[in-house]
Design a protein that fits this description.
Transferase(Phosphotransferase), domain 1; 3 domains; 7-stranded antiparallel beta sheet; 32% helix; elongated; disordered N terminus; Tyr_kinase_AS; ATP binding
Length: 810
């Protein structure tokens, strides 16, 4: 879970930090910009899928850019000429498909989610294409990213082409494109987006998704054949295979219309949801959630973003509050149907179904993310938890109600259409799956196939889905070969039952401790019952249950299992080798490939670093290749608790609000570990004003972690020892009342201090600690299915030398 943080940087070292940050941007861009080796015609066929033919004979475009002769540093003065040329290319398009172009260079564009705009870079692309059929933004003086469909950069000469150089200046230009692409994708919930770079008389098309960018070869703005190619690109862009406004739009997502907004407000008011009038509904959207291969989706209106990972080449996780939209289901019901006629799916609750009958909404969590193919789907871990832990004993863990892997679903539909049936889950081999070689002969056929043959979800084996899956990226495989499958990402969307509140918004310190205790108990259940080790305990991944009396018995829970691993030795039938389809995959080669590395989210992002890095156990910071074990997560719980106390309670540390910045360091593993060691080794007792139970708990927890670290007594840092501390503290009757969290403010005296936004450092997959005794596990069918899909990945070696690379995940 993203946790935006601000890290104070001493002014004397700010230049050094800035230089290292820019160098990290450069490394990240070089690794993720893939030049397309094929012709530009094939580039458009492959990455701009459309069934619409472009034939505008009699329309003269030969001299569209004849007058485009900009001078270096004075390009703005020639923008009108450039816009006229672009208008010439799209003039023959029907009005509802015609693109209009906008001078956006003078507008500082903020991140598209207002609640998170201060955490991310602004940008001002030179030019932008508006939505098809729109001639001007609703508010031309204050345009938003939602007004644009594509961005453009224009420079004076071919020497300004940033894709021909790895210089710092070129890196900064590509970075501008990437930041704009990131914002555009978040504004619309896009699967991919395009940027047009114009450099004097030449131009390039760049396609961005969450795995990488693919860049076309340069083409001329003064040659007729190349102008026809650019015109064809625009035409295909506004004529996608799906019924969506333009290429890259997700057909399972749309913005809310006025009817949606009215219905949403009505149902939120009925359940007394706070702040309905303050909701930013132009950010909200309606999304479809699919279970496995089901053809019928469940619709949810996602009305408030709780957390947004603003990185482009990453999981790009967005967490929403949402409610089930059952309007279409009700329209299909007979008017005389009573409540007894309402049926319930296996994964639905009575509250969810009641929305169709009694109109009562139930607020849920919807998570949208792009998982690396190299990692198990997070829903697999939840399936394992469900199969292993009975509802009666379930504490501190949420439940997935619906949803799954949209990318996997779409690829399986392709396989069914091409081969008669999808590949069995235990035989999936991403290296050969829909490989470029196996499907190359289909490219031309798909472009000319009748529309009836190209409908996603048709049941006949001869039905071909739209041109190549887009819910799962294929950009690495199509540009650098099928052996780069591990760089790809797959789109996931699922619904979680429990709605939580951040640890930093506790209503009382007792509630904070109760939530932490239940989260620790949930961690214990996951490890001992299901063999799942979380491995990413942080402030953002532990939540307080808003209304425990109305829902689960937990006061808090852990979530975000997408970086989890399996604790070895939990089950005797746990496979020791990869599934048969994976035995030929050289995981060591993948792990040491120059472009593979750890997951993007695993690398510290120098621009948008979130909180996970601060909670990493000391041993994991100090020792490259250290196996992640249970006691490391239990130590992370301590650092998360300390972080919240230092920032949101009235404590008596002499540095006051600067204490957290003194103890929690970033960007340097040695420094970060050293500060934590110094804190653990100090006999100083941090007092919390008027709160003896919390003071005692924090001190005893510190000493327990210190013994584990200094005396090598990892066996003393156990679930039982930690639970004992929390229970003793909660049994103390001296807890204060009405001591809700305090707002954390950075010092007003930092006149010469800069801040750096954060992105979490995730750990590479490592061997987990074996369980000491065999535990009752899930049903064999569920266990074997999940393990077959993930065991090979868990065995992939990490790269200790590059384990904490400071690479920017844009």
């Amino acid at each position: 879970m993203s946790l935006p943080t601000e890290i104070p940087v001493n002014s004397d070292s700010s230049d050094k930090f800035q230089a290292s940050f820019i160098e990290s941007w450069k490394r990240a861009l070089v690794e993720r910009i893939n030049p397309y080796d094929g012709s530009n015609d094939n580039f458009i066929k492959t990455f701009v899928p459309s069934r619409a033919r472009c034939n505008f004979r009699g329309h003269n475009i030969k001299n569209a850019f004849a007058d485009w002769t900009p001078k270096a540093g004075q390009e703005v003065e020639s923008y009108d000429v450039l816009l006229n040329g672009l208008d010439t290319l799209v003039k023959p398009f029907p009005e509802d498909k015609r693109l209009s172009f906008f001078r956006s260079h003078s507008h500082e564009m903020k991140f598209p989610f207002a609640a998170f705009e201060s955490n991310h870079h602004t940008s001002n692309p030179n030019l932008a294409a508006l939505l098809p059929g729109v001639v001007s933004p609703p508010d031309a003086a204050n345009p938003t990213w939602a007004d644009f469909s594509m961005i453009m950069e224009a420079k004076a000469s071919a020497a300004d082409d940033p894709f021909t150089s790895s210089s710092l200046e070129s890196c900064e230009e590509v970075f501008r494109l990437a930041v704009s692409a990131r914002s555009l994708m978040h504004a619309h919930g896009l699967l991919a987006t395009f940027a047009l770079g114009i450099y004097g008389d030449i131009a390039r098309i760049a396609r961005f998704d969450h795995a990488c960018a693919v860049v076309s070869k340069p083409f001329s703005l003064k040659k007729l054949e190349d102008l026809k190619l650019l015109q064809r690109f625009f035409w295909r862009f506004v004529n996608p295979c799906h019924i969506v406004p333009f290429i890259g739009c997700d057909p399972t997502v749309r913005k809310l219309n006025s009817d949606d907004e009215e219905w949403l407000k009505e149902h939120l008011i009925m359940i007394n949801f706070p702040g309905v009038d303050e909701l930013v509904l132009h950010e909200a959207r309606r999304a479809e959630v699919y279970d496995a291969d089901d053809d019928e989706p469940k619709a949810y209106i996602m009305f408030k973003a709780l957390n947004v990972n603003g990185c482009l080449f990453s999981r790009a996780t967005t967490v929403w509050l949402g409610i089930r939209d059952n309007r279409s289901a009700r329209e299909n019901d007979d008017a005389s149907m009573d409540d007894s006629d309402v049926t319930m799916d296996d994964d639905e609750t009575e509250d969810d179904v009641s929305q169709a009958g009694t109109e009562k909404a139930v607020v849920r969590i919807i998570k949208d993310a792009w998982r690396p193919l190299l990692r198990c789907p997070e829903t697999d871990f939840y399936d394992l938890l469900d199969a292993s832990i009975s509802p009666e004993e379930r504490v501190g863990l949420p439940t997935v109600l619906a949803g799954g892997d949209l990318g996997e679903r779409e690829v399986r539909q392709w396989e069914k259409a091409l081969y008669g049936q999808p590949t069995p889950s235990n035989e999936v081999d991403h290296q050969s799956r829909l490989s470029a070689q196996r499907t190359a002969d289909l490219d031309d056929a798909l472009a000319s196939a009748p529309q009836s043959m190209l409908v996603l979800g048709q049941s006949t084996s001869t039905a071909l889905p739209p041109h190549r899956p887009m819910q799962q990226t294929f950009s690495w495989r199509l540009t650098r070969g099928d052996d780069q499958w591990h760089q790809e990402r797959s789109h996931m969307r699922f619904v979680v039952d429990t709605v939580g509140r951040s640890l930093t918004h506790f209503h009382s310190t007792r509630e904070l401790v109760e939530a932490m205790l239940d989260a620790i108990r949930g961690h214990k259940l996951a490890t001992e019952k299901a063999g799942v080790l979380h491995r990413d305990i942080s402030v953002g991944n532990v939540l307080i249950v808003d209304k425990p009396e109305e829902g689960p018995q937990s006061r808090g829970f852990i979530h975000d299992f997408d970086y989890s691993s399996y604790a070895e030795g939990v089950e005797d039938d746990f496979p020791t080798n990869p599934p048969n389809n994976s035995t030929d995959i050289d995981y060591e080669q993948i792990a040491n490939a120059p472009d593979s590395g750890d997951d993007d989210d695993a690398q510290a992002n120098v621009k948008d670093r979130i909180g996970t890095y601060y909670f990493i156990a000391v041993q994991l910071l100090r020792r490259a290749g250290e196996a992640h074990k249970i006691h490391h997560d239990l130590e992370s719980f301590y650092w998360a608790l300390l972080w919240v106390i230092l920032r949101h309670t009235e404590h008596m540390h002499p540095l006051k609000h600067l204490a957290s910045a003194d103890i929690f360091k970033c960007c340097d593993d040695r420094l970060a570990a050293g500060q934590k060691i110094g804190w653990l080794g100090d006999s100083y007792v941090l007092g919390i004003k008027g709160n003896p139970p919390l003071t005692a708990l924090l001190d005893k927890y510190r000493r327990l972690v210190a013994r584990s670290l200094f005396r090598k007594e990892e066996n003393k840092l156990t679930y039982e020892s930690v639970e004992k501390l929390f229970i003793a503290a909660l049994d103390d009757n001296r807890w204060p009342e009405n001591d809700a969290s305090k707002t954390f403010m950075m010092s007003d005296l930092r006149t010469n201090t800069s801040t750096v936004q954060g992105q979490p450092l995730r750990k590479p997959l490592a061997a987990s600690v074996p369980s000491k005794k065999k535990k009752a596990g899930p049903q064999p069918a569920v266990r074997s299915r999940v393990k077959r899909r993930c065991k090979a990945i868990e065995g992939a070696p990490s790269r200790p030398a590059k384990r904490h690379r400071r690479t920017a995940a844009l």
